[in-house]
Amino acid sequence: MQRPPHRAGHGNRQRAFEGWHSRRYDFLARRLLRRIYRRLAADLATVAPTGGAVLDVGTGPGVLLVELARRRPDLRLSGVDRSADMITAASRNLAQFGDRASARVADVADLPFPDGSFDLITSSLSLHHWDDPAAAGRELARVLRPGGQLVIYDLDRAPFDQLTAALPGQPCPHRSPFGSGMPFFPKPIRYAVTIGNGAAGA
């Protein structure tokens, strides 16, 4: 299948997350970027329903899921990433949580889950890498349960509008700056939308 043409401002750079690069990113995520993931996890912990199923798209080494698992032991957590090396790191980091947290290789535009599998889907600093945001939006809506929330954190140049256009119904996403907690780090945008009833996310 032909890959969609590259669009300025985003696109998947697979080699940047494989081999030695994946080991470097694992170190950065667990050490230097930990404060960011803790802030994201604290935010998600307030919106995830009790006993809910959560999917992290572009999970990388799974650090966001680790932090969320520590805050909310009631949640069932899954992560996906296109890089097998990243999933190896994520599986290692998530092993401490047993069968309530796992990660697997998958593309956001072709998720290996049944319809309505998740109550909450999140992604952090990944959307701007997606090859086809519209296809991803349709797939994310498919695996969300009715009334489920999509919460994405990314740079302001990420293709949020393309994602919104692909969502069913008349979605009303709420966008707001989200403090990273780290000096000199770009302030990401928090994009939240509830799928199924058109209501904006919390």
Structure overview:
- The protein has 202 residues and is of the alpha/beta class.
- It is 31% helix and 22% strand.
- It has a seven-stranded mixed β-sheet with strand order 3-2-1-4-5-7-6.
- Helix 2 (34-47) packs across helix 3 (63-71) and helix 5 (133-143) crosses helix 6.
- It is globular, with a radius of gyration of 16 Å.
- The N and C termini lie far apart (38 Å).
What is the structure about, briefly put?
With about 200 residues, this protein is α/β, with parallel strands linked by helices. Helices cover about 30% and strands about 20% of the residues. The chain is built from six helices and seven strands; from the N terminus they run ααβαβαββαβαββ.
In quaternary terms, these chains amount to: single chain
Strand order of the largest sheet: 3-2-1-4-5-7-6
User: How far apart are the first and last residues' alpha carbons, in Å?
Assistant: 38 Å
Give the low-pLDDT segments.
1-12
Beta-sheet strand percentage? 15-25%
**What is the approximate shape?**
globular
User: Could you describe the largest sheet, including whether it forms a barrel?
Assistant: 7 strands, mixed
SS class: alpha/beta
Helix content: 25-40%
